[in-house]
Specification:
It is built from 11 helices and 2 strands. By secondary structure, it is mostly helical. It folds into 2 domains: 184 residues, MFS general substrate transporter like domains (Growth Hormone, Chain: A); 27 residues. Strands 1-2 form a two-stranded antiparallel ribbon. Helix 1 packs parallel to helix 8, helix 5 runs antiparallel to helix 6 and helix 5 runs antiparallel to helix 7. The two termini are 16 Å apart. GO terms for molecular function: transmembrane transporter activity. Keywords: Membrane, Plasmid, Transmembrane, Transmembrane helix. Pfam families: MFS_1.
Length: 220
Amino acid sequence: MTDGYLTGRTIFCIGMTQFINWGITFYMPGVFGSAIMLDTGWSPVVTFSGLTIAMLVMGLVSPLAGALIARTGGRTMMMAGTFAIIIGCFLMAFTHSTTSWVAVWPLMGAGMRLALYDAAFALLVETAGAGARRAITLVTLLGGLASVAFWPAGAALLHITDWRHAIIVYGCAGIVSLLFCPPFRQGIGVNLPLPGSPLFRRSEQQKTEKHSSAACGTPR
């Protein structure tokens, strides 16, 4: 794990995944709920129970999600979770019964657990170590702005099309979110400590100690 700091570009990319993923999941039922009930005749309990189920699944899979993130890294799990959300949105757009509507939400919940803050923060920390504190704050801010953007955006979509096509648009937005992840799979966007800085001196000291230990045959 690098004990450094992240570039603005990398923080922005990770922040955008949170901005989009929160908008197309957590705030989606509130935006489209009335249109869904009007079109299908479902009760508010059925329509909004999906998000409750998703949040329950998020809690239940948290231990497993934490283990997977620790084993494979935040980047991989965030991409997997986003992919699950995309599939969930597309399936949701073609549901015509309360059973199928409710059945999609556990998949959404599992995706939300992996694609939202947990994996994003793990990705920041594994990339920058202690230097991730400020980045976490900025990413949280971008995620919080999702409600400001997606409520009016979703309402605007309902003026143009029906809720099913609107959710398909949300699924496509998930694909955009997925595209923000690959550029830094190889660590692109991490600034190395500047020569003369405390981080640089500490890094060089650690390298020297490691080489000295190897030369002396002392395991570290």
